[in-house]
Amino acid sequence: MAAKLMSNTPTIASNYQESVESYRQLILSTGEDLQRPGLEETPMRAAKAFAHLTQGYHQSLDESSTTPVSIEQSRAGIGTEY
């Protein structure tokens, strides 16, 4: 099941099955051997990484920001520590 972009109700499959298969096909199209040591788990790693990188597409502003920072604070570097 694919994700609905620009929606607060994600429909990403928790097992990443479609994404993993897409990454497998992409890697195979480059001529790589998916059985090569170090490459076996790459499609799953890539699928999880992409899901993490795009998780904000499925969050409201309230969910994605926890500490409000004003423009002045941001320019001064206040409130941007991690």
Low-confidence stretches: 1-10
- Mind telling me the C-alpha Rg? 18 Å
Number of domains: 1
Count of DSSP-assigned helices: 4
Q: What is the CATH level 1 assignment?
A: Mainly Alpha
The name of the CATH topology is: GTP Cyclohydrolase I, Chain A, domain 1
H and E order: HHHH
End-to-end Cα distance: 34 Å
Q: What is the molecular shape?
A: elongated
Classification by helices and strands: mainly alpha
Fraction of helical residues: 40-55%
Supply the CATH architecture. Answer: Orthogonal Bundle
What kind of sheet is the major sheet? none
Strand content: under 5%
Total E-strand runs: 0
CATH homologous superfamily?
GTP cyclohydrolase I, N-terminal domain
Averaged pLDDT, please?
A: 77
Summarize it.
The chain is mainly α and 82 residues long. Helices cover 43% and strands 0% of the residues. The chain has helices spanning 17-29, 42-53, 61-64, 71-76.
Distinctive features:
82 residues, mainly alpha, GTP Cyclohydrolase I, Chain A, domain 1, 4 helices, 0% strand
Descriptive notes:
The protein has 82 residues and is mainly alpha-helical. It has a single domain (17-76), classed as GTP Cyclohydrolase I, Chain A, domain 1, CATH 1.10.286.10. The chain is 43% helix and 0% strand. The chain contains four helices and no strands. It has helices spanning 17-29, 42-53, 61-64, 71-76. Helix 1 (17-29) packs across helix 2 (42-53). The longest helix is centred in the first third of the chain and has 13 residues, at 17-29. It is elongated and about 50 Å long. The chain starts with 16 loop residues before the first helix and ends in a 6-residue tail after the last helix.
